[in-house]
UniProtKB/TrEMBL annotation:
<dbReference type="InterPro" id="IPR036322">
    <property type="entry name" value="WD40_repeat_dom_sf"/>
</dbReference>
<dbReference type="GO" id="GO:0030576">
    <property type="term" value="P:Cajal body organization"/>
</dbReference>
<protein>
    <submittedName>
        <fullName>Uncharacterized protein</fullName>
    </submittedName>
</protein>
<dbReference type="GO" id="GO:0003723">
    <property type="term" value="F:RNA binding"/>
</dbReference>
<dbReference type="InterPro" id="IPR015943">
    <property type="entry name" value="WD40/YVTN_repeat-like_dom_sf"/>
</dbReference>
<dbReference type="InterPro" id="IPR051150">
    <property type="entry name" value="SWT21/TCAB1_mRNA_Telomere"/>
</dbReference>
<dbReference type="GO" id="GO:0015030">
    <property type="term" value="C:Cajal body"/>
</dbReference>
Amino acid sequence: MSTFEGSSVGYVNYNFQSTTLELARCQWANYSDQHYLKCCKWSPDGTCLLTIARGAGTHVVELPSDLYTGESMLTSRPVNPLSPAVSVPENGLIYDYSWYPGMNSSNPATCCWVASGHEGPIHLWDAFTGDLRCTYRGYNNVDELEAAISH
């Protein structure tokens, strides 16, 4: 990190000279559904990708296992389609979601994420099975169900 003269704010120096390498891709068979990726987040242990797709819910995709041990990436590596290991259909718009901060694939109890959606409670989902672990409901000052919105 570096700081500009007279500033106490630190800035990260990125190296944009290195090339991007496509590791894998995900696609839907039925294009008439008009699914598109809204956002994605890597798991804290780096083994899974949690994605939100419009109209298709939440998906957990595992990083290809050959990438765990490689010291470097070959540009000739085949690009394989990714298939979700777990898919959870969600009704309506998903406002935000997040992995459990201590998530580690070797400890199944930590493999979960929360999601908050339009006019609904917060759900805690199991990343191995896709089962609903828990539901958290927020209420406003007149005892009406209130969706959680993160900022």
